[in-house]
Automatic annotation (TrEMBL):
Keyword Cytoplasm: yes
Biological role: Catalyzes the transfer of the alpha-amino group from S-adenosyl-L-methionine (SAM) to 7-keto-8-aminopelargonic acid (KAPA) to form 7,8-diaminopelargonic acid (DAPA). It is the only aminotransferase known to utilize SAM as an amino donor.
Key word Ubl conjugation present: no
Originating organism: Flavobacterium geliluteum
Name this polypeptide is given: Adenosylmethionine-8-amino-7-oxononanoate aminotransferase
Modified residue annotations for N6-(pyridoxal phosphate)lysine: K265
Cofactor: pyridoxal 5'-phosphate
Length: 423
């Protein structure tokens, strides 16, 4: 049997209808922004393998840090024990996160980082004997696939089988240009009519919705409204964190600091699954008590895994190098030029850029669903051309590893231009 045949016999892939899906491509090697399949065909990874890999595939610097940690202390339970790598990650993050963040909680992936934040928001008020059980979230949000994260997510086919089984979530419009006032008013109304514990949002860019962007001033105002009403604010930076928006965190653009921040994806440079939720002291203090019942009874077996911590430290180190910061600026400048070039194309609705994130919406005669026919046509075209891009309906976005060369980036642009002509 070939690897593809064995795959189809044994494996169940994410977000995949196996009856109609194409056979997955077997990737055998990666380096920098490139991937190679088992037949030696080369692909440019223009979406950093689902946004996790800023520093390139098979990065030697991170690999060395992981190897060193694996052969010193690979893992130790985090209940009753601690270790230097976890402390170093905490110190490093507290240095670069918004200044009000004071406590670091480890988990394993973006969904659990969100799950922790939502549970903390709900238990915060439980511990204070206040009845607040509603979570506020944006329309078309994506916060992950575990239950509270799904409840907060607004993309219906991800969650439709579970409607009616969720915690109480009320949705407000995203404050995209022209819709800010509607968003502010909706938030005020929800807070008036519900007992709200928390507001969770993807700051400035809604990734899975198709890189939907909105302004920092609008987000600052929403956070202010929450703070005036004692509603906890949760910035889900799982996608936006670690340089994607051009600053270390999307919240660095926003004048108001949130109560909690969720991190994962690029945290370990795409090597080891790990996530972190961070908190203000005020949030932590609601759990700090002589009464054991007020503790946060949440944990995962691999919490604070030292190898993951070593990978995170190496990754943050790479992010802070002048070379990497220059790469981010170069990619942003190229994106802006490309945006200018194609935004007036008759087949383009809009194009937008923030940091290394670029998205273009292509005109379509039919209403395009997330996994609709245009999406399939585009996806197949890109794969044939050796470029990994996963369009969201009629939206094509680029989120390259920061190490992508200018030549590779120009090839990605040229392929997108060709695709626009083709559809
Ligand atoms: C990907 C993502 C998640 C979920 O992370 P997983 O590691 O896939 O569980 C949560 N929030 C945002 C904003 C994301 O982009």
């Amino acid at each position: 049997m070939t690897l593809q045949e064995k795959d189809s016999q044994y494996l169940w892939h994410p977000y995949t209808q196996h009856k109609t899906a194409q056979t997955p491509i077997v990737i055998s090697r990666g380096e920098g922004a490139l991937l190679w399949d088992e037949n030696g065909k080369e692909y440019i990874d223009a979406i950093a393998s689902w946004w996790v890999n800023p520093f390139g595939h098979s990065n030697k610097f991170i690999a060395d840090a992981i190897y060193k940690q694996l052969t010193t202390l690979e893992h130790v339970l985090f209940g009753g024990f601690t270790h230097e790598p976890a402390i170093k990650v905490a110190e490093k993050l507290l240095e670069i996160l918004p200044k009000n963040q004071q406590k670091i909680f480890f988990s394993d992936n973006g969904s659990t980082a969100v799950e922790v934040a939502i549970k903390v928001a709900l238990q915060y008020f439980f511990n204070k004997n206040e009845k607040r059980t509603t979570i506020i979230a944006f329309e078309n949000a994506f916060h992950g696939d575990t239950f509270a994260a799904m409840a907060a997510s607004g993309i219906s086919f991800y969650t439709q089988a579970f409607q009616g089984m969720f915690i109480d979530v009320v949705r407000i419009p995203v404050p995209v240009k022209g819709q800010e006032q509607e968003s502010f008013e909706a938030l005020e109304n929800v807070i008036k009519s519900h007992n709200c514990a928390g507001f969770i949002f993807e700051p400035l860019v809604q990734g899975a919705a198709g890189m939907v962007m909105y302004e920092p001033e609008a987000l600052a105002k929403l956070i202010r409204i929450c703070k005036e009403n004692n509603v906890l604010t949760i910035a889900d930076e799982v996608m936006t964190g670690f340089g994607k928006t051009g600053k270390t965190f999307a919240m660095d653009y926003v004048s108001e600091e949130p109560h909690m921040i969720c991190l994962s994806k690029a945290l370990t440079g795409g090597t080891i699954p790990m996530a972190i939720t961070t908190f203000t002291s005020a949030v932590f203090e609601a759990f700090y008590d002589d009464d054991i019942n007020k503790a946060l009874f949440h944990g995962h077996t691999f919490t604070g895994n030292p190898t993951g911590c070593a990978a995170a430290l190496a990754s943050i180190g790479l992010l802070q190098t002048p070379e990497m910061q220059a790469n981010i600026k170069r990619i942003n400048a190229s994106h802006l030029l490309f945006q200018k070039k194609i935004e007036n194309h008759p087949k383009v609705i809009t194009a937008r850029t923030l940091g290394v994130i670029f998205a273009v919406e292509i005109k379509s005669d039919t209403t395009e669903s997330y996994y609709g026919s245009m999406r399939t046509k585009l996806y197949n075209f890109f794969i044939e051309k050796g470029v990994v891009l996963r369009p969201v309906g009629n939206i094509v976005y680029i989120l390259p590893p920061y190490v992508m060369t200018e030549e590779q980036l120009q090839k990605v642009y040229a392929t997108i231009e060709e695709a626009i002509e083709m559809v």
